Give the backbone structure.
Amino acid sequence: MQFPAWSESQALEVISRICDEPGPVLVTLQAVQTFFGYVPDAAVALIANACNVSRADVHGVLTFYHDLRTELPPEVSIHLCVAEACQSMGSREVMENSRKAFATNSSVEIRDAYCLGNCALAPAASVNGNLRGRVSAQSLVAEVAKVAMR
Amino acid sequence: MTIVYVPGDSAARSVGSDAVADSIALEALTRGLDIQIIRNGSRGALWLETLVEVLTDSGRIAYGPVSSSDVTSLFDANFMNGGPHALFQGVTDEIDWLAKQDRITFKRVGIIDPLSILDYEAHGGLVGLRTAIGMTADEIVEQVTQSGLRGRGGAGFPAGIKWRTVLNTSAEKKYICCNADEGDSGTFADRMVMEGDPFMLLEGMTIAGIAVGAVEGVIYIRSEYPDAIAVMNKAIAIASKFGWLGKNVLGSSHEFTIRIRTGGGSYVCGEETAMLESIEGKRGVVRSKPPLPAIEGLFGKPTVINNVLTLATIPAVLADGADAYKARGVGRSVGTQVFQLGGNIARGGIVELAFGITLNALINNFGDGTFTGSPVRAVQIGGPLGAYLPLSSSDISMDYESLLSAGGMLGHGGIVVFDESVDMAIQAKFAMEFCAFESCGKCTPCRLGSTRGAETITKIIDGVDVEGNKRLLLDLCEVMTDGSLCAMGGLTPLPVKSAMLHFPEDFDSRNGGVR
Ligand SMILES: Cc1cc2nc3c(=O)[nH]c(=O)nc-3n(C[C@H](O)[C@H](O)[C@H](O)COP(=O)(O)O)c2cc1C
Ligand code: SF4
Ligand code: FES
């Protein structure tokens, strides 16, 4: 996925749009990540300032949630479900084979997901946010090729 | 003009329903045929997705599972008039798998256009809310109490009693929080309600608001559900424009608004107090109780917290009366349960039935056995904190009490099937690892015990002092059960101990790690 490069003025604009919400820290972090693809170090102080909390508070929230990331994601982000229903349909093997298949492809990352709500069509994965069912390493390779074409 | 239904539910989309819809539109255009495609929710027969339906003189006719490469042949077979085809399933409502269900909460899911208020009303929507507007707060809470409806999020606590506490607590502000975190593996009913019948959830929340005197609602939806978030946002906008949400609910003197908060990918934020912390923008650390959220909840105010399915069932309770709902079920498990069949199962999806059906009927009659075709070995009921049961427990009645006495729990109603290839020691180890990964960190037995537990199971798998380590593991489970504040640490021992109890052979006599 493509994201705009870090810019303090744009960040301030994103932050000011949302930081008046009640209990603003998490939503503001989420808004920054939606815009830039991640939460850069530099955003922490801006958010702390806008939300009127300490930097430690913002950092605490940032490190608690598995979704929030401090590095830019690569072009393709695959979340492969490794929870029980998908395990019963061989997701451990799909994970192993997918890791091999994408080992040398630095534009693809594979992350663990714990249930994507597609347990009747397991194994499930989400590719750049698009849910897929009955996946295999091969189907993920094909999916990534499609993303690259776009 | 012919109406064609192609589900827009994300499970259907995950197996190509968007491409099917595109192909149908294109093919109709090329052939000069006048059609309208409606992206409905899913009927819940996920094994038949993409399930295409056509509205004909003899009702809605189904074809499935359709992939985009089948579309030309469907047109050639005159599917627009219900013509015969290899994927022909007959009248949708008469498909055995669907016809044998008893749908209340899922009554409209897959049938209506999810974002059409007209369609919603034509299928019984808003009757419950209009009824509630004509009642006193006390009468609404009494109806809900009388219906016997219990929370569907896991604990099964009576909804009416919770509402009564909030109603009786005076405060200048109160909240309705809908728990749509649905983190349990094997569950997807909340998602399908939100994507397939979003107004029903809004209606249930509005009724809850009127009942307890709250004017603000929050839906906490997990980030793994982007489609559900999008549909709910649109539904809120439509309901506000329609004059349902806002200052004067359907022209009454009641006020109610709803906003959405997105989760952060943390399982423990499904625990109700961690969810409140998360909505307040903080780390999702579980709160000690008391105070109960019903007395001091969101931002310290009295708060009704209910699961999606609980709130989504409220309109039907108000519309048809408590007695109609109560007439179904067994013992204290009244009404219907939305069972979710997943994992290694041939016919997975939503099976809504009165409590009391047997596990065997669900797995074999509806599920048609495993997907792989080899025998069922284990079933996990109630998510990652639920017990693993062997097939010998398959005549168990599926209700809260029977499952408890069988050493399990119903949880949110997810049923995950495993075939013979499952290694139960590995599953037990995963339960501990999952707890270590998702623990909020407040209690030592949960935070550290789970890591020690996973290490101990690794030793058992590797054949290191198996008997000693099994004893150690059971001790550890006891410490976690007794010393954890919430069910994350408190119930992780359930899958572990049930695996050890019912599948001892997977823990003993392992040959250098191999089962
Ligand atoms: C670790 C943990 C995770 C939970 N996850 C959910 C969840 O995803 N959805 C849910 O409705 N309840 C979940 N619960 C149960 C809630 O704490 C709470 O009981 C429920 O939301 C109340 O609604 P109900 O009475 O309608 O069931 C979870 C509980 C625990 C301990
Ligand atoms: S049991 Fe675990 S998740 Fe629950 S409060 Fe304790 S540390 Fe947090
Ligand atoms: S367990 Fe994988 S999608 Fe639910």
Notes: Chain A touches chain B at residues 21-28, 30, 51, 57, 60-61, 64-68, 79, 83-89, 113-122, 124, 126, 129-134 (CB under 8 Å). The pocket of iron/sulfur cluster (ligand 2) is lined by residues B 268, 286, 439-443, 446-447, 484-486, 488-490 (CB under 6 Å).
